[in-house]
Amino acid sequence: MKIPPIKPILMASALIAAVSAQAEQNGQEKIDYVQLGATLLQDGYVQRAKTVLEKVDIRKPDFDYVTYYTLKGVMNHELGYPLVSNRFLEHAIALGQSKKSIYLYIARNHWQDLNYTGVIEALDKAGEAATNSEQMFAIKAEAYKQLGQMKQAWATLDAGIAHFPDYARFYSQKFYYLLELGYFQTALEYAQHYLQKQNYSAKDYLAMAFALRENNRLMDAAVLLEEGVIKHPADDKLLEMLGQVYIDQEQYLIAALVMDWASIQFPRFAHRAATLYLKAGDPIRSLQLNRRIGDQKEKFQQRLGIDIELEDYESLVAKTESLKRYDLLKDDNIVYALGYAHFMIRNFDTAKQYLQRINDNQLFTQASQLFQQIEKCQDEPIECR
User: Fold this and answer.
1) Residue 222 and residue 11: Cα distance in Å, rounded?
2) Is the pLDDT assigned to residue 28 strictly greater than 50?
3) Could you count the other beta carbons within 10 Å of the beta carbon of residue 61?
4) pLDDT surpassing 70 at residue 17
5) Contact of 263 with 269, CB cutoff 8 Å
6) What is the pLDDT of residue 280?
7) Which of the residue ranges 20-24, 101-105, 117-121, 149-153 would you say has the lowest mean pLDDT?
8) Which branch of life, at top level (predicted)?
9) What number of H helices and E strands is found in the chain?
10) pLDDT reported for residue 261
11) In whole angstroms, what separates CA 21 from the centre of its chain?
């Protein structure tokens, strides 16, 4: 689960404002690079702050290492160097930095390094700086979850809800945890009770539909997904799952219509729509969708099935050169289809040549039976009329 960022500018402003004041009190240089670096960091000019802090003379007497290391830690956090950042911040703490908000940076750095135990330890040390932030509760719960400590993760979310009852992410996290644990019915009941339906994201609709599907409530899943598609028409995963739910119910025509509509916005669905129309017994519409497919190799593979369904064996045979060009005759299914098509238009010798090339065990049995039928037709043509 993706956890939201921890509002680094606001957090940095509070911490840097404190160290800036300290730097002003301790500064004696004509140009106080520590103070200037703090100001630049506070204003969001991280690269400029880096350049300025590199000019600091740390050899002068009574140098304020606490402020300097704190700023270097914050700077490296913002630059995306979590290990370096934590090293500076830990030095600052060892030398007397007492601001609890520094542990929020340390926690975030541990999160970036996937050190979930470190995340939890840092947030525990942060005290009120952590408990005053709803996002820190969410991060801590997810850290417990990543460690497989679901009881502690759930308890952390409960604590977060006690502090911030209106923060929707806590309820959403609980819902997804229930899904991951396989408690689909409980997850559904929880979502219906706690989550605000009008605020469902596309991901929420997908998760709810998945839970309904796992509980074999396919029609309910379809209704929910249709609502989701209306609210989030640009989400291709909702459309794909809606089609799949209808496939689960063997409602192939409805599934084809869904994929057909989806293919207008997402052309990759054209192949699936054509396949479903064919399965639903509508080869004409399948042929229309097949023409939308951009991948020529994929198009020809599917077109063979459509030709067979339409009993248009001459068209199938006419595609032989194209099939060779796209190197599709390595596929025994296609070779068998060509053999069958030649059989149907009474090109018996050519049909036998194709059938003799088949190696696939399952198709070999079918090819052998068809081969015998061809020989019978050649021996007794009247029987094959």
Assistant:
1) 44
2) no
3) 5
4) no
5) yes
6) 94
7) 20-24
8) Bacteria
9) 24, 0
10) 94
11) 45
Domain range annotation of the chain: 335-384
Q: How far apart are CA 39 and CA 367, in angstroms?
A: 80
Encode burial over 183-195: b for 16+ CB neighbours within 10 A, e otherwise. ebeebbebbeeeb
Please report the sign of the dihedral spanned by the C-alpha atoms of residue 160, residue 162, residue 163, residue 169.
positive
Tokens coding 380: 């007794």
Give the whole-angstrom CA distance, residue 344 versus residue 95: 89
d(CA 235, CA 247): 19
Distance between CA atoms of residues 191 and 210, nearest Å:
13
Q: 3-class SS at 373?
A: helix
Q: Which two tokens stand for residue 254?
A: 């409805």
Exposed e or buried b per residue across 257-275, where buried means at least 16 C-beta atoms within 10 angstroms of its C-beta: bbbbbbbeeeeebbbbbbb
Q: What is the pTM of this model?
A: 0.63
Contact 157, 174 (CB under 8 A): yes
The amino acid occupying position 56 is V
Tokens of 6: 């921890």
**pLDDT band, very low/low/confident/very high, at 10 (cuts 50, 70, 90):** very low
Residue 43 has pLDDT above 60, yes or no: yes
Average pLDDT score, the chain:
87
